[in-house]
Amino acid sequence: RGCTVRVAAMAVAPCSVVRGAAAGLGSARRGLAVVALAACCFHAAAEEEGGEKGREEVSAVNVGISVMLLGSIGFMMALFELTHCYRSTMARYTWKAISATISIFSAVLVFQGVNGILEAYLLEDASVQARLIITLVHMLAWFFSLQVVLAVITGVLPVSGFDPKKDDLKVMEARMKTFAILLGHITGFAAINFFATVQQQVPRTFISTFLVAPVAWAFLYLMGRATDAVRERVVLMNDGKKDEVEALWDEEAEETEDDVVGLATSFVFAQSVRLLVGGTLPNAEGEEPLSVMREHTLMDASKLVAIGCGLAMLEVLRVMYVKAQFKRLTPQLKNIIAMNFSWCGYFGLDWMCSCTIFGHEEGMMKQVTLALVVTGCALADLYILEHLHELRMGKLQETVEQGIRVVVNSIGILIGFAWEKAFDVAVVEISETVKVVPPQWTKLALSVSLVALVVPAWYRHILPTILELETDSESEGHAEHHKEENVEEGHLSRPLLNGMAKEENGDLKKTCESLRRQVSELERSAANARALEEKNRELEAAIVAISRELGDLQQLADGLQQH
User: Fold this and answer.
1) What CA–CA distance (Å, rounded) separates 315 from 336?
2) Is the pLDDT of residue 357 over 50?
3) Are the CB atoms for 63 and 41 separated by under 8 Å?
4) 160 neighbors 112 (Cβ within 8 angstroms)
5) pLDDT value of residue 274
6) More confident residue, 125 or 488
7) At 452, which helix (H) or strand (E)?
8) Which among 145, 147, 39 has a CA at the least distance from the CA of 370?
9) What are the DSSP calls for 450-505, one per residue?
């Protein structure tokens, strides 16, 4: 019964959520109703008893396969509708949420697969000191792999057989973002594993566990500053200046390191908050025994969710009214608070499901239902934020949009966390049923196979779309800002010759982008031409020298013939 219900749950989960939101903004409320209905159906199916067992299992399997068959078409078309929504803001939010979900999903699958091998062969019977050393080395290995891969992609670290400069700068940027996000999230979860293991060794008090968070922040911040200094030295080593590609490498590496800080620091902070609210410190993976989960009340879950929402509101207020900026600390603080909202929201909703629906059950069905609930709440948040974005607030418009952007990113991470847990449970259960090879190797093979299928599509289609939408959004924001400035100065709010349609405006943007790529290619060709001219001059000098030597040899030969 558990297996068959999982099949139906996995089929209905994404379809129900996307179908509820696909019709537009007003359908977000219907999406919440569908989520609640699906959760109730899963719970009723789990508790159904009686009847012939064999017949019940066969019937449930047939229902699950039927739902997968019918739901797949609805899921694909609903997802297509939502990502092509006529409101550009909602489409952009949807693409970002999908991207965050895929990146978190892929990163955790790879990390869990590799960590499972370490658990089976190194950590199972290891002492506390050995466990800390191994988890630290694991984190450092991913951290330095991140630096090396980004350097290779940009050509800063040359590798034979790979020439990144033959591609367009936009292609290089998309490739670098793909690996930066993926490796950054893997490194972040490796850092979570290390610092959560450290947190398990301190006294089980709120103050002691809380102090691990600033220690993690300081440790990762110093590592980031050290690698930043190394990057600056490498950049200036050859010609003493930083070109566009090298600046892109440095910027992307810093942004990824800030994400690592946000993931690790926020998780250990959320662990201490869960200890404060629930009275028990979860294990290093954030899990609690079923007996402890049953003891949490609805009030405890509400407190945890409220703490996460309160932190998100504080970050929005900080973005709107605090103008002081620090180069690395301010983005890291933003990531920590946004991801704290995600962790507290996820675990708070987990407690709610455990104390109201799944008081006596764990496993796939609970994780899928929890992911449905989380996604439904995220839909409601996006619905509110989209309407808030449509409001015109004058000079505060830009700061409001920055605050909204912070919350949207955290919502995408929240959805990614929820569905990643469901996929992780699915991979674990499948690997345990395979008897040909050990479970840890089956888990690693499944993880790598899924990532190999998902990441290329994410790189080729999703990330370029997000980059294009963000570019359009920034252009519209600057245009709106200049328009408001002109109105305040008494100029015309709309030019007299403003008859350009949106299609023409889009064509102009594409033309400008094409011209920018052509200029980049011409600059690259000019650099190659200068290098060729220098080689030609060297060859001409060598030919002149060889001619002189031949003349000397000819004179010597003539002299020998005369004698």
Assistant:
1) 10
2) yes
3) no
4) no
5) 94
6) 125
7) helix 439-457
8) 39
9) HHHHHHHHIIIIIHHHHHHHHHHHHHHHHHHHHHHHHHHTT--SS-TT----HHHH
3-class secondary structure, 162: strand
Cα radius of gyration (the chain): 29
Q: Could you please report the per-residue DSSP string of 318-386?
A: HHHH-----TTHHHHHHHHHHHHHHHHHHHHHHHHHHHHT-TT--SHHHHHHHHHHHHHHHHHHHHHHH
Contact 320, 396 (CB under 8 A): yes
Contact 200, 283 (CB under 8 A): yes
Contact assessment for residue 93 and residue 382, using Cβ atoms and an 8 Å cutoff: yes
Asked if residue 109 lies in contact with residue 51, where contact means CB atoms within 8 angstroms, the answer is: no
Name the residue among 504, 481, 505 with its Cα closest to residue 493. Answer: 481
Q: How far apart are CA 137 and CA 487, in angstroms?
A: 58
H-type alpha helices, 489-563: 502-562
Q: Of the candidates 297, 396, 312, which has an alpha carbon nearest to the alpha carbon of residue 355?
A: 297
- Specify whether the backbone of 282 is left (phi greater than 0), alpha (psi in -120 to 50) or beta: beta
Instruction: Report the DSSP beta bridge partners of residue 299.
Output: none
Q: How far, in Å, CA of 340 to CA of 139, rounded?
A: 21
H-type alpha helices, 84-127: 88-118
Nearest to 21 by CA among 31, 11, 35: 31
User: What is the distance in angstroms between the CA of the first residue and the CA of the last residue of the chain?
Assistant: 109
Q: Is 159 helix (H, G, I), strand (E, B) or coil?
A: strand
Of 356, 341, 362, which Cα lies nearest the Cα of 298? Answer: 356
Kindly report, residue by residue over 73-89, the tens digit of the pLDDT: 765 776 677 777 777 77
The one-letter amino acid at 452: A
Give the predicted TM-score (pTM) of the model.
0.73
CA distance 479 to 493: 11
Reduced 3-state DSSP string for 388-416: HHHCCCHHHHHHHHHHHHHHHHHHHHHHH
- For residue 460 the two structure tokens come to 């080729």
Residue with tokens 């089980």: 204
- DSSP bridge pairs for 551: none
Show the DSSP H helices in 48-87 as ranges.
53-83
d(CA 534, CA 45): 77
What are the tokens at 47? Answer: 């508790």
C-alpha 483/C-alpha 493 separation (Å) is 6
